[in-house]
Amino acid sequence: MRADLSSPENFEALVREHQGLVFRTLTRMTGGGPHVEDLAQEAFFRLYRALPDFRGDATISTYLYRIVVNLAQDEWKRRRKERTHLASEPLSPEGEEESSGWIENFAGDSLASEHARTPEQRLSDAEMQSAVDAELLALPEIERSVLVLYHQEECSYEGIAVALGLPINTVRTHLHRGRKRLSERLRSRLAVQPHPKEGSSNGPATGAIMAGKV
């Protein structure tokens, strides 16, 4: 017999287990700010209301990803309606704890070293993180969602397909396009040469991602 996830004790444990996931994903998808906490509360409220109909066909985390993506899309629509721009804001404390992981999962440690080939091009981890966050927010919504779920949350293609309600091949397409678009924007923003000189310390993963070929 399946445990009653909506009981006070079980739901409190569920929130504790998944709150990091919710805050991280909302921060990456909508930018940092006080709105993230409000959206996170709404995410768990929607989850609680949906629990009576939860049949276990997907994991709770996949179910939450779907809720979070829907909330992020609502937030983007609200901002567009108010004619505000999706500008990069400082990460919330929850997002800061996970900030380095986004860089490492997207391109590996060699991405930072590529942008530090010379003293003039040396960028701190914080500067690199700020650049990725800003350019991520400038991507089309669906590409941003797929990139965050795949690189930050390390979801499988199948998990992303379930969370976004898309065919797996469509997920692959958006992931490829998102990587290419993000790498192009980063090269432009950071003035990185697309073809490093021979003997540079760039790793193969960095070269492929910055070229948009991964």
UniProtKB/TrEMBL annotation:
Domain RNA polymerase sigma-70 region span(s) in chain numbering: 14-81
Family: Belongs to the sigma-70 factor family. ECF subfamily.
InterPro entries assigned to the protein according to its UniProt record, in alphabetical order: RNA_pol_sigma-70-like (IPR039425), RNA_pol_sigma-70_dom (IPR014284), RNA_pol_sigma70_r2 (IPR007627), RNA_pol_sigma70_r4_t2 (IPR013249), RNA_pol_sigma_r2 (IPR013325), RNA_pol_sigma_r3/r4-like (IPR013324), WH-like_DNA-bd_sf (IPR036388)
GO biological process, one term: DNA-templated transcription initiation
Pfam families assigned to the protein according to its UniProt record, in alphabetical order: Sigma70_r2, Sigma70_r4_2
Keywords recorded for this protein, A-Z: Sigma factor, Transcription, Transcription regulation
Source organism, top-level taxon: Bacteria
Keyword Cell wall biogenesis/degradation: no
Organism: Granulicella mallensis (strain ATCC BAA-1857 / DSM 23137 / MP5ACTX8)
Gene3D superfamilies with a match to the protein in the record: 1.10.1740.10, Winged helix-like DNA-binding domain superfamily/Winged helix DNA-binding domain
PANTHER family registered for this protein in UniProt: RNA POLYMERASE ECF-TYPE SIGMA FACTO, RNA POLYMERASE SIGMA FACTOR
Residues covered by the RNA polymerase sigma factor 70 region 4 type domain: 131-182
Name of this protein: RNA polymerase, sigma-24 subunit, ECF subfamily
An example Gene Ontology molecular-function term: DNA binding
NCBIfam families, A to Z: sigma70-ECF (TIGR02937)
Chain residue ranges for the region called Disordered: 192-214
Top-level taxonomy: Bacteria, Pseudomonadati, Acidobacteriota, Terriglobia, Terriglobales
